[in-house]
Amino acid sequence: MKTYQLYQVDSFTTEKFKGNPAGVVINADGLSEQQMLSIARELNNSETAFVFSPQGSDHDLYIRYFTPTVEVPICGHATIATHYVRAMINNAVSSKVLHKVGIGILPVEIIKDENGYLIMMKQGEIQFSEPFIGQEHDNIVTALGLNQEDLDQRCPIQIVSTGHSKVMIGIKSRKKLDSLVPDMISLSRLSRLIGCNGYFVFTLDSEISGVLTHGRMFAPAIGIDEDPVTGNANGPLGAYLVKHDLVKYSEGSFAFKGEQGTAIGRSGIVEVQVKIEKGEPVEAQIGGRAVIVFQTSIEL
């Protein structure tokens, strides 16, 4: 038997019961895949992170991520939660950490300030698939409960990835965004056909000062009907906005804040930074704050 330390953390917020909840097992050495899956299913968050000792000298820690049904290669809000917990436990100063995740070894910046800790993480390689056309395009729109007139015509529907791909769907109206009722069975079926589990519906129709976008993310094929606040959607969104000339930016970089979660009562803010070279997005970082809701232990 071993005692494992478990934290429940709300990410992309400083208010408990807002943002996106994640589990963090801070000392996961010794856990099997089935045990990790069982813990993730018991907590029933969209993702739970499991922190292991490093596997080599080129990184500081190794993290694995599980939804209640499957392992995923990386998760933004669970990464923010993990490094926030480690910073709090260790009373960390501002520093950089290298973590190994399912898509490789990436840097994380721990920023200590008067408001606590801001965690900024580099995401993986930016990849764009060809935009959907024809019947596939129409099937996605219909499954989301949208009509063609709801779409922002500047925004092609396409898969974008920074390590964990999402379908980007731009619409005109914040009101429409908040009222969406997707067909989860149809979205799950489409996921198998298009090879992507997440659908990120967003709008530039924002009335909040300092916030550029609002979004909702649906991933029923991996057990997440709706994810409250999604780092692995807002990061690709930043790259997408630059790629399609939907925003103005200064030479070499673009930064914005994206809000998500209002429709399900868990609003949170993701800070996004995109590095740009020759007009093309080449690197995305996402970040946010967090708050520990509770901590406990489990013996297995």
TrEMBL record:
Protein's UniProt keywords contain Isomerase: yes
Gene Ontology cellular-component terms listed: cytoplasm
Active site: 47
Entry keyword annotation includes Isomerase: yes
Matches recorded under InterPro entries: Phenazine_PhzF-like (IPR003719)
A molecular-function term among this protein's GO annotations: isomerase activity
Pfam families: PhzC-PhzF
Family (UniProt): Belongs to the PhzF family.
Protein name: Phenazine biosynthesis protein PhzF family
